[in-house]
C-alpha cells in the first residue's frame, strides 16, 4: 500500500522538476545579444562615464549615463506592473584623503529591486559598473568609452532585469549599476553599507566586470570559458574562527566560495556549452572589483568575468602606437558572449531567488566513528535537505544525498576524516540554497 501513496508524490515531483528546468531554459533563451549591443552603444555614446565627469549635460558624462540607466529600469518596471523599486543610492566622496579623487563629488549608484513574494528581505544582487576611465584615472574629460570595462557588465545587468522581471520570485533580486569603481570601489562600499544598515539578508553578490571580451592579449580566442573569482573565507572572520579551521577544515569553504560553486554547478547543468572556471582568489592578482566591499562586510560575493583579458583595451586612451590600437571601444565586444554571461547571472539569480534559505546551525559529528553525522536547524519553506560531500582535494561537491525533511542524518560508512561536507536546503520545485559548510561540531 505504501508504494501507492509514494507514487503520485514522485510523479508530482518529476513534473514539477521538469517545469523548473524549462523555466531556466526559457530564461537563457530570452536574453538578447541585440539588446545588450544597443545598451553598450548607448553607454559608449556618453563619451566618458568617469565618476568625476560632467553631471549636467544630457548627452555626455556620468550624470547623463546614470539618468539613462534609471529611466531604462523605470521603463522595464512599467512593463511588469511596477515590479521594480528604482532609486539612486549615493555617497559623497572628497578629494581630501583620496589620492585618486580629482574633486569632491557624489558617487551615485542606480538600484532596481524586484521584491520577493515570500522573503522580501532576502536579496540576491547583480552588479555592473556605470563608470569608465581613460589612461589617467584622474582625467575626467577625455573620451573613455569603457565598452567592455564595464558597459558590458552594466548592459548585462539591465538585460537580466528585462528578462527576470517577467517572472516572480520568492526572494528579492537587486539589479544595480555602481559608480566610483575605478577610483576606489566607492559605489560598492556605499551599497554594501546601505545593505548592512537596512539589515538586508544578502544571499550573495554577482559582480559582473568585463563580460564581453573573447580575444585575449595572449592571442587566445575563447567564447566558452569565463572566470568566477571568490575569496576563500570571509575577510571579517574572527580569530577564533581562524583557529578552529586548523582542526576542522574550511580553508577553501567560505560563503563566497560556496556561491562560486553554486554558479559553477548551475552552469554545468543548464549551459553545458560553457566552461565555468573557478579561480580560488578574491580577484585578479593585485587588482580589485566591486564584490570586495561586500566581502569586507561579511557578505558572500563573487566576480564573474571573461577568461581572456586584453590589457591594450582597458584603461587606455584611444590611440595607435607602434601599430597597436589602444582603447576600450565597442568593436572589441562580443555580444553573443556577453549574452551568455548575462544568462549565467540570470539563471543563478532565478535559482537562488526560488530556493528556500540555507539551513542554519549546521553541525557535524563523527570523530573516531565509522560514520559522519549531521544536525541542522530546519528553515521555513524547505521541502527537504541535501547532504553534499567531496574528496578534500576536489573543488566541486561531487557526491550528494537527498535526505528528506529531517534535521539530522548519519551517512553510514562515510568516515569524517576523508571528505569535506556541506548541507543545502531544497525547495518544492527542486531549487537549492547554497551549500553550508558546518560551523559547529558535536560528539
Ligand atoms: Zn576597470
Short description:
With 443 residues, this protein is of the alpha/beta class. It has helices at 2-30, 33-44, 62-78, 147-164, 181-184, 186-197, 239-248, 255-270, 292-296, 335-354; strands at residues 84-93, 105-114, 119-129, 171-178, 201-208, 225-229, 275-279, 301-306, 319-321, 324-326, 360-365, 372-377, 384-391, 399-404, 408-411, 419-426, 440-441. The protein has three domains: 1-30; 31-354, Zn peptidases (Aminopeptidase); 360-441, Immunoglobulin-like.
What distinguishing features does this structure have?
binds zinc ion; Aminopeptidase; Immunoglobulin-like; 8-stranded mixed β-sheet
Query: In whole angstroms, how far apart are the ends?
Result: 39 Å
Which spans have pLDDT < 50 for at least 5 consecutive residues?
A: 1-10
Structural class: alpha/beta
H/E element order: HHHEEEHEHHEEHHEHEEEHEEEEEEE
The dominant shape is globular
Please report the total strand number as a whole number.
Answer: 17
What is the tally of helical segments?
10
What count of structural domains? Answer: 3
* Average pLDDT figure: 95
Please state the CA-atom Rg, rounded to the nearest Å: 22 Å
Proper CATH architecture of the largest domain: 3-Layer(aba) Sandwich
CATH H-level homologous superfamily name of the largest domain: Zn peptidases
The biggest beta sheet reads: 8 strands, mixed
Residue share in helices? Answer: 25-40%
According to CATH, what is the topology of the largest domain?
A: Aminopeptidase
Bound molecules: zinc ion
> Taking strands numbered 1, 2, ... along the chain, how are they ordered across the largest sheet?
1-2-4-3-5-8-6-7
How much of the sequence is in beta strands?
Answer: 15-25%
Amino acid at each position: 500500500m505504501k508504494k501507492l501513496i509514494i507514487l503520485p508524490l514522485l510523479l508530482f515531483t518529476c513534473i514539477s522538476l521538469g517545469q523548473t528546468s524549462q523555466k531556466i531554459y526559457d530564461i537563457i533563451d530570452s536574453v538578447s545579444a541585440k539588446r545588450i549591443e544597443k545598451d553598450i552603444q548607448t553607454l559608449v555614446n556618453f563619451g566618458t562615464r568617469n565618476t568625476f565627469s560632467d553631471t549636467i549635460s544630457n548627452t555626455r558624462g556620468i550624470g547623463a549615463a546614470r539618468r539613462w540607466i534609471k529611466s531604462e529600469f523605470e521603463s522595464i518596471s512599467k512593463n511588469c506592473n511596477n515590479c521594480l523599486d528604482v532609486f539612486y543610492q549615493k555617497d559623497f566622496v572628497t578629494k581630501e584623503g583620496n589620492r585618486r579623487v580629482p574633486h569632491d563629488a557624489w558617487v551615485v549608484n542606480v538600484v532596481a529591486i524586484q521584491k520577493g513574494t515570500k522573503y522580501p528581505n532576502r536579496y540576491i544582487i547583480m552588479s555592473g559598473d556605470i563608470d569608465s576611465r581613460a589612461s589617467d584615472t584622474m582625467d575626467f574629460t577625455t573620451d573613455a568609452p569603457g565598452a567592455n570595462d564595464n558597459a558590458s557588465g552594466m548592459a548585462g545587468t539591465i538585460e537580466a532585469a528585462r528578462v527576470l522581471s517577467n517572472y516572480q520570485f520568492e526572494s528579492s533580486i537587486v539589479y544595480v549599476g555602481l559608480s566610483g569603481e575605478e577610483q576606489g570601489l566607492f559605489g560598492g562600499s556605499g551599497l554594501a553599507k546601505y545593505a548592512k544598515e537596512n539589515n538586508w539578508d544578502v544571499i550573495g553578490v554577482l559582480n559582473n566586470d568585463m563580460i564581453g571580451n573573447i580575444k585575449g592579449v595572449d592571442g587566445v580566442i575563447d567564447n566558452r570559458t569565463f572566470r568566477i573569482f571568490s575569496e576563500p573565507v570571509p575577510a571579517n572572520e574572527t580569530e577564533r574562527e581562524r583557529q578552529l579551521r586548523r582542526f576542522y577544515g574550511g580553508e577553501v569553504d567560505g560563503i563566497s566560495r560556496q556561491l562560486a560553486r553554486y554558479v559553477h554547478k548551475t552552469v554545468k547543468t543548464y549551459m553545458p556549452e560553457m566552461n565555468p572556471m573557478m579561480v580560488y582568489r578574491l580577484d585578479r592578482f593585485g587588482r580589485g572589483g566591486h564584490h570586495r566591499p561586500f566581502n569586507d562586510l561579511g557578505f558572500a560575493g563573487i566576480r564573474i568575468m571573461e577568461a581572456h583579458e586584453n590589457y591594450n583595451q582597458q584603461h587606455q586612451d584611444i590611440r595607435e602606437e607602434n601599430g597597436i590600437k589602444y582603447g576600450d571601444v565597442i568593436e572589441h565586444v562580443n555580444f553573443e558572449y556577453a549574452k551568455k554571461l548575462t544568462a549565467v547571472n540570470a539563471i543563478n539569480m532565478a535559482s537562488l531567488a526560488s530556493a528556500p534559505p540555507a539551513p542554519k546551525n549546521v553541525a557535524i559529528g563523527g570523530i573516531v566513528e565509522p560514520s559522519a553525522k549531521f544536525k541542522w536547524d530546519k528553515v521555513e519553506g524547505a521541502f527537504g535537505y541535501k547532504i553534499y560531500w567531496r574528496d578534500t582535494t576536489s573543488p566541486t561537491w561531487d557526491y550528494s544525498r537527498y535526505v528528506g525533511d529531517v534535521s539530522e542524518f548519519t551517512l553510514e560508512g562515510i568516515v569524517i576524516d576523508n571528505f569535506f561536507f556541506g548541507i543545502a536546503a531544497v525547495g518544492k520545485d527542486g531549487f537549492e540554497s547554497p551549500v553550508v559548510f558546518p560551523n559547529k561540531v558535536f560528539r
